[in-house]
Amino acid sequence: MASKFGLAGGIPERRVRPIWDAIDSRQFKNALKHCTPLLSKYPNSPYALALKALVLERMGKAEEAFSVCLNAKELLYTNDSVLIDDLTLSTLQIVFQRLDHLDMATSCYEYACGKFPTNLDLMMGLFNCYVREYSFVKQQQIAIKMYKIVGEERFLLWAVCSIQLQGRLLARGGDYAAATSIFQKVLELCPDDWECFLHYLGCLLEDDGSLCMGTKNDSTYPLKSMDSHVSHLTDEAFGSRLSNASSLVQKLLTEASDDTVRCPYLANIEIERRKLLHGKGDANKLTQVVIEYFFRFGHLACFASDVETFLHILDLDKKTQLLEKLMECCEPIPTNPRKTLGQHITVFKIQNIVGSMFTLPLNELETTAVKMTQLYCENLPLSKELDAQESMYGEDLLSMACNLLVQLFWRTRHIGYLVESIMILEFGLAVRRHIWQYKILLLHLYSHWNSLPLAYEWYKTLDVKNILLESVSHHILPQMLSSPLWADSTDILRDYLRFMDDHFRESADLTFLAYRHRSYSKVIEFVQFKERLQQSSQYLMAKIETPILQLKQKANNIEEEEGILESLKHGVQFLELSDEIGSKSLTFNEELQLRPWWTPTCDKNYLLEPFEGSSYCTRETLYDQIKQSQAKVVKTIEKRSFLPRMIYLSIQCASSAVKESVEANGVVFDPKLSSEMRLLLDRYANILGFSFQDAVGLAFDISSGLKDSGAWSCNLIDWMNFLVFLNAWNLYSHEVDGDSNTWLIVNSILKKYILDKVGSMGPLESSPGCDLPNLVLLVTEPIAWHILVIQSCARSLVPSGKRKKKGGPAENFNVQLSQELQESILSVCETIELVRQWLNQQIIKSDDYKSESILSSLLKDKEEGPGKVYRVLESLTSSSTSDADFGDRITRALQSWSATDIARKIICSQRTALSSFLKICDSKIKSLQALKAHL
């Protein structure tokens, strides 16, 4: 059979190559034409049939493709003369999988392996099928068979990895002894697998908390999910089992020949931590093993994150003592300056973890930031021989200095510190452009300063792809959705949704690829992540925000808007989605630990609040903030899912408000739509925390000045949307108090809030954190929907093809409505004109003036205040440097850095955002003026 397996079902490659070429170039009709002569020559070839099925499936002819696949499968089973090879089966597998019949592909491979039980290619194909089905037991069994046939270690590790995935299942089922045994075997094979040790210890102590990581929302904050409860074991059983764990760790230490293996050393710290949790430990002993770990690995960048979890169990005095001892250990090592530098960086990180950085006086905080920057600059020569792709020595120093400068800005509100924080990150990226930590910090700093185009440019340089689109895109997506950068927002949403949809189809392929490349931790990661993606909150949000963005872009033209709504089934599908949200357990897959300290979640920014000490940075506060944010996201998804349907119903209600227009145009308005709108308004108000009647009453009270408008500040856009939809519904139903003109209320409140926003914002270049995003949302959402309501009413005032009857109450009503429309158009135009005037004032100022305003904040000749960190950088870049000191690459980078250029980039970015917003305002005023002329 060996020679036969060299062929593809017995067909020479030259005969099938044109088909594959056509498929690869997406010329499916041409590929189908090539299939016809192939099948006429090889009518009983499963491979030829599989190729035809593949082409048919790609052409969208699913039923035909499935029928052809079944014919091929039947030939495989019934014709003994047919050659069975992996290429035929893998082609069938592709089609069956895309048609959601993976079980049939699996049965084909099972049949083939039964017929040829020693063929490795077929067995690997079967293993792949089991990976796709997440059948861990069957994966293990077939991997063991392959190992027995060829004796290759990779197949044994495939089996071990499959067993580990079953370990997890055993532990969750309560069979801790069996799970412990499996995890111990994995550790003996892979002694540096820290996650595996945590699972081993958790099962040994019958505390499976660590096994829940990756399946519960706590995984967004791993330090919290690693917390352990006090063990229910007796003292004797607890001590005995920890003794067993210590023996295993000593065995791993004895056998470890590589100095890079950290897991056994960390394991000793974890064992001491568990003792403390059980009330049988010694804090001094825990401190001692951490110091021992520092002597061996303290110079590594990962040291601080390695021990962070263990530090939180210590009280403040013990943390302070530990920090002092670590400082004592940081003595210069003349023979190894890199190690010395690494230890100093670690101490800075530990200071930050224990919270001491946030208790320093302003002058000490500033001095520390300067020291960090100087340390980075002094050690640049250590990196002169490194490639641009390699991490440089001391990179963490600039990100830590940046964090201190941002804290100084928060506490003093002096913009110069914010400028310095940006300057040092831009400096670091000039030296080496591939440092993602700097880019994420810059992204958030530029977003805060309303330089979103620049933030987006840095985000794009992160080259975020595949799974990272789910876990990293939260750094930019919320800001983009509240910006005027509609084209860029569309690109982000499209790329994200395309990845998610493809990943659901192809995740099993990634898992099998990880097996083949022996990345066993990735196997587990892919399996866990697939489970989490299926309930992704961000995926739901993107699916809803994509059509809302389309509706915002077309809101000036009611006909185009109606076309979009029709393609969305008038928003019904999103209502169905909102009904499911309450029953779903949504996952939050953002890597929140990558976010800057000042914005721990997407909806929280400490820089917008007054400084009130360091209590915010406690572990418990942060965890609570994350949970609150996640609960808010669920409500936001439900609330946003109403919008397409409410926009559609608003248009319908408004068009039916005009007397006689329904009959004149031959359209009958269904009263059920009004009832549905009332129900949705009620649900919308409930999400905002009010009953429908109370929400309406609050709106009237604020409009009349009886209540303060601050009641809406947290949900301003939502309340404005509610008012617009309320007015549209009332145009038809007239159920709101007849003495209250809802047109007037909407017009006046929109103008009031726009005026408040514009009046509170200073010059953009000197006003970080100004509320430009909410101003953009006010214009592009509630005002946009209000304009649609106006258009709908205006269109109905002139029935198509028929003249209206003159006289009578209907005409009087329509005259009144026409007057209200004219007044609304005038009011909205005046409101948007207020925004246009502010935008033009910002844009006409010269770039030189704005740049000087930014650079002058650095107080170059003052002893107090910002500028000291900047002067360290300026001194280095202006001094005569030679290639011998820094190397050619670093020298050129130092010469290219310019504070003036950075200031100009900020100004240019702000101008781009403002100009985009101005175009939106101009287009709305133009459309309203055209409508007014028509009336």
Automatic annotation (TrEMBL):
Pfam families: NatB_MDM20 (PF09797). InterPro entries: NAA25_NatB_aux_su, TPR-like_helical_dom_sf, TPR_rpt. Keywords: TPR repeat. TPR repeats lie at residues 160-193. Gene3D superfamilies: Tetratricopeptide repeat domain. It comes from the Eukaryota. PANTHER family: N-ALPHA-ACETYLTRANSFERASE 25, NATB AUXILIARY SUBUNIT, N-TERMINAL ACETYLTRANSFERASE-RELATED. Belongs to the MDM20/NAA25 family. This is N-alpha-acetyltransferase 25, NatB auxiliary subunit isoform X2. The gene is LOC107780747.
